[in-house]
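Hi there, hope your week has been kind to you so far. Thanks so much in advance, here it is:
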Amino acid sequence: MSGASFIESQTWLVMNDGARLDASVLLPTGAGPEGGWPAVLLVHGHGDTGCKVSCLPRARRLVARGYAVVAYSVRGQGASEGLCFHMGPREIFDLQDVVAWMLHSCPVDPERLAVCGSSQGGWHAYMAAIHCPQVATVVPENIFTDYASFVVRDGCLNRWFFTRTMRRRIMTAGFQELARQWALAGEWDLLRAWMQERSPLNFAERIRCPVFIVHGWHDVGMPPNDVVEMFARLQVDRKLYLGAGGHDGIEDESARQMREDLVDRWLDHWLQGIDTGIMDEPPVTVACRPGWEHVSLPGIPQGQAEQVLHLCVEGRLQADAPTSPTLPSNINNFPLDPEYGLAQALRDDMAGVAAALAREEIVFDGDVLGDDLLILGAPVAELHILPNRADVQVHIELYDVDGKGGSVLICRGHHGTRTAAAGGHLLVAVTAATIHYRLSAGHRLRLVVTNYNTTFAFPFFSQSCTRLFHDDERPSHLTLPLA
């Protein structure tokens, strides 16, 4: 295929175990610069239709900007041969082979190669920074950095991992079924250990090339908390964008254009030596919700400014702590269908949970705001509870409530344990998703405490009763990080 300013061809890349990967090569027309073209390797996301084809629109845009581009289908996906090991060592070996092939067989500058991709492709970008010293820069997008938390997060099985990643119709080597077996057998620590070695967070100190991390605030499958931690650990030139997009997240055209422009300027600076001004700007760019106002920051502040709101009787959320004993609230977990449990939820992607398990909510409303309230970071609820079973889950949801009573979800979080002392007091910290959010004057904040929320986590299906305390001796409270 030929475009106005590039030539696009297809080829097979033979890996060191003999498997062939399907690849497309896009080269600008005309004589290249001395030393070869600056180059970008694109890796696609993981999924039923995940393959190089999803990268080709981006590849054609990049080649028109003067880059040589290669996009390939990961093994076991698209037309590529072999079996998928779900971002394991075999995929890293393939990545190293593809990078070596590009530098040896394509007219590219060996000093000016970037690896970019979203989701599975974002993991490959991190792995290139860690395991491919030839790479000049990477752009990982929309991907977890702590894979133990991807499978079991805050003591609960991660819904997105099991209903999406582990149900993809790909040429799997068998890990999908093994993961479900371990989940049902209660081998959650084994699941976490198996996935932990895939975590980019383990190797942040080994990365030597510049990194531009891109992520969406409202990424349903992968909240940005671990991404912020990865950015903080990096010891190289780096940039972070947090805003629109992500897995099933909220997209906005103006924010998408902002994100695309930042990535273009990053690549032009590191691969073409163009003074785009991007390194003169603060390293963090974030969009403030509910609009898409973008601001530049030196970092995501942690613990510098915060507001503490206490849970109080009669559903109040207030700055003053309780000063006397009060009646506790109850968080009940009541099965409506005792035959429905984790096995059924794994099988039907939790479609039957609402009919099989009663959801109970305890609502706490704050005062009407006299001024705007600007949240930046991860809200944390410290809850004093008393469960009657070893296995207990507590979820929090934060809402922006306007003057007419309409509510918009800000963020949510959960905490689960299977080792609580039945009948013993317990203090749990429930960390919500990191967010930059403006509550307008005239609105109020609402905190909902509940027994389950299926957006992120599989519920516990056993019947239980958990006391929630909000008195002078056990002052449950919510801490808001402020911008």
